[in-house]
Design a protein that fits this description.
With 208 residues, the chain is of the alpha+beta class. 31% of the residues lie in helices and 15% in strands. It has helices at residues 25-34, 39-53, 57-60, 69-75, 80-93, 173-181, 185-189; strands at residues 55-56, 77-78, 98-106, 114-124, 128-132, 162-163. It has a four-stranded antiparallel β-sheet with strand order 5-4-3-6. β4 and β5 (128-132) form a beta hairpin. α1 (25-34) packs across α5 (80-93) and α2 packs antiparallel against α5 (80-93).
Length: 208
């Protein structure tokens, strides 16, 4: 694996945390198998592995509800948020800065209720931040690794929906709390995390 990137502003996007526990042996071992000579190829391998080899909890009706990177890699399932935690961990373990991005979407495509959708941004030279979405493809959804282009599963366009410009170094607490409280995939589907417009400012979220 290559040496750590030195730029101070990127250091928070490389750190292990309780959720992005990339130093856990199983995560670290998988990260090593995905490593390549060029960072862009390593990033592609990590993205495609999480997208294709970790099953989306609701699409495949899989338990348990996972949160930490090590839980996701152990059970090979997760909601979009959890899959983004694992992808960030694999990238950080390979010394590629990775953060978290969110959309607020209408669950039924007709207004309230709403929920967050989570995905990643990763930092690659010479492009800078590139947004990728490893939630998992299905009919009508096709996300790819295509830098410098972003490739997302969804786009918020309806009233009340919102795309946030931030690349966060840590997952939103409301997302982590929802996953940690999840008891089953179907129960989680009924209580997906959301952030109301009045909370954007206090959380530092900036609509794009």
């Amino acid at each position: 694996m290559a040496a750590l990137i030195a730029e101070p502003h990127l250091q928070p996007y490389l750190r292990p945390t309780a959720v992005i526990d990339w130093q856990q042996p199983q995560v670290l071992a998988q990260a090593r198998t995905l490593s390549a000579a060029k960072p862009v190829d390593t990033a592609r391998h990590c993205f495609e592995w999480v997208r294709d080899r970790v099953l989306h909890s609701a699409d495949h009706r899989r338990n348990p509800v996972t949160c930490t990177a090590s839980e996701v890699i152990q059970h090979r399932t997760g909601y979009c948020y959890a899959k983004s935690h694992l992808l960030a961990a694999l990238l950080r373990a390979n010394h590629i800065p990775a953060g978290f991005c969110y959309l607020r979407l209408s669950i039924n495509d007709d207004g309230a209720p709403y929920s967050l959708h989570g995905f990643n941004a990763l930092y690659l030279q010479p492009w800078g931040w590139v947004r990728v979405d490893a939630r998992g493809n299905r009919p009508g959804l096709d996300t790819r690794f295509d830098p410098p282009n972003d490739s997302l599963a969804f786009g918020g366009k309806l009233y009340g929906e919102c795309t946030f410009a931030n690349v966060l170094a840590e997952p939103l607490p409301v997302v982590v709390q929802a996953l940690q409280a999840g008891t089953s995939w179907d129960a989680m589907l009924k209580r997906l995390p959301d952030v109301e417009p009045g909370e954007y400012g206090s959380l530092g979220l900036k609509p794009a």
